[in-house]
Design a protein that fits this description.
- The complex is a heterodimer of chains A (115) and B (114).
- Chain A contains no helices and 11 strands.
- Chain B has no helices and 12 strands.
- The radius of gyration of chain B is 14 Å and the shape is globular.
- Classes of the chains: A mainly beta (115), B mainly beta (114).
- Chains A and B meet through strand 4, strand 5, strand 9 and strand 10 of A and strand 6, strand 10 and strand 11 of B.
Chain lengths: 115, 114
């Protein structure tokens, strides 16, 4: 079966533009996570969903960042009025259930560059 | 707050030798999980091994094993018979029951010397 997919794989945008990053989890996976990874650092948690419900958004840096998963499958992370400091790799992961026992499978990431 | 510390930014090992990567963590939780993830140059994130805190036995996956010292809050990864394909960034990570978001360390870059 297919793994977690993300699109686009690369996104270059100008400061002030809005961007939408898409994550398509493994079919049947209940939990979906968003992380951000700066170069040379480990991923940092942004937010996660169980089904369509956003369970924790404590990692979103500010109100320019939002995420949704309206039908409990595909999720979109939106960044409004992008700034250069938003440049990073944005990773999505999904897991079968919401439990640490269940492996989080990571997608390939979207590399965002804000000029 | 939970923290994960990897004190070795870089490590190197001769091919076929054994190397140990260190990780310490801080938590007040009793039911938690520890992970090692591998990030090769392709920048994928691949789970290498997982340890559940309530299990006393150290986890093993083929050439990869952990030394889990709960009292010391230490979770090191041992790679035996190192292979060129093991070259990657290795991240230690943690989560706990009821809060499944992963907290990662800063990573250790492992180089394999042919």
């Amino acid at each position: 079966g297919a793994g977690v997919s993300q699109s686009p794989r690369y996104k270059v945008t100008k400061r002030g533009q809005d961007v939408a990053l898409r994550c398509d989890p493994i079919s049947g996976h209940v939990s979906l996570y968003w992380y951000r990874q700066a170069l040379g650092q480990g991923p940092e948690f942004l937010t996660y969903f169980n089904y369509e419900a956003q369970q924790d958004k404590s990692g979103l840096p500010n109100d320019r960042f939002s995420a949704e998963r309206p039908e409990g499958s595909i999720s979109t992370l939106t960044i409004q009025r992008t700034e250069q400091r938003d440049s990073a790799m944005y990773r999505c992961a999904s897991s079968l259930r919401t439990s640490g026992r269940h492996e989080q499978f990571f997608g390939p990431g979207t590399r965002l560059t804000v000029l | 707050a939970q923290t994960v510390t990897q004190s070795q930014p870089e490590m190197s090992v001769q091919e076929a030798e054994t190397v140990t990567l260190s990780c310490t963590y801080d938590t007040s939780e009793s039911d938690y999980y520890l992970f090692w993830y591998k990030q090769p140059p392709s920048r994928q994130m691949i789970l290498v091994i997982r340890q559940e805190a309530y299990k006393q036995q150290n986890a093993t996956e083929n050439r990869f094993s952990v030394n889990f010292q709960k009292a010391a809050k230490s979770f090191s990864l041992k790679i035996s018979d190192s292979q060129l394909g093991d070259a990657a960034m290795y991240f230690c990570a943690y989560n706990f029951f009821g809060n499944e978001k992963l907290t990662f360390g800063t990573g250790t870059r492992l180089t394999i010397i042919p």
